[in-house]
Amino acid sequence: MSIIYIELDEDMEMPCPCQRCGEWFDLHNGRGSKSWYPGTVICKECSDEEREEMEVEAAEQEEEDDYEEEDPDDFNPDTCPECGSDEAGAPICSQCGCLLVDQDDD
C-alpha cells in the first residue's frame, strides 16, 4: 500500500476529493449531486456546472414538449371544431353549441 501526500488548505475541517473533478474541497462547502452522482457530495464548482446542465436540459425538454406535433392517427372526425369535444353524430355540440352539420349536405 502506498501513501499519497496531498497539500491541503489548513482551513479545511473535513477535506474530501470531488467525485467529478478530483479537486479537494471542504465537505462543508460541497453540494449534493442530483444528476451526475446522486447521493454524493461534489465541489461547489462542479455542482454549479451540473445545475446549469440540468437547466439547459429542462429548457430543451420544454421546447420539445411545446413543439410536439399531433399524431395524424389521433384525428377524430366526430370532434367539435370549436372546443374539441367528441360529439359522434350529433348535429349540435353539447359543450359549446356549435353547429356540426354542414349546411351544404341538405
Write the layout of secondary structure elements.
Layout: E1 15-17, E2 24-26, E3 31-32, E4 41-42, H1 44-66
Biased composition (Acidic residues): 51-76
Region (Disordered): 51-91
Calculate Rg over CA atoms.
Answer: 30 Å
Whole-number mean pLDDT:
79
Query: How are the strands of the biggest sheet laid out side by side?
Result: 1-2
Number of strands: 4
Number of helices: 1
Q: Helices and strands, in N-to-C order? A: EEEEH
Main sheet: strands, sense, barrel: 2 strands, antiparallel
Spans of at least 5 consecutive residues with low confidence:
none
Report, as a whole number of angstroms, the end-to-end distance.
94 Å
Describe the structure.
Residues 51-76 have a biased composition (Acidic residues). Residues 51-91 are annotated as: Disordered. The N and C termini lie far apart (94 Å). The strands form 2 sheets. The chain has a two-stranded antiparallel sheet. Strands 3-4 form a two-stranded antiparallel ribbon. Helix content is 22%, strand content 9%. It is rod-shaped. The chain has one helix at residues 44-66; strands at 15-17, 24-26, 31-32, 41-42. The mean pLDDT is 79. The protein contains 1 helix and 4 strands, in the order E-E-E-E-H. It folds into 2 domains: 7-67, no CATH class; 76-106. It has 106 residues and is of the alpha+beta class.
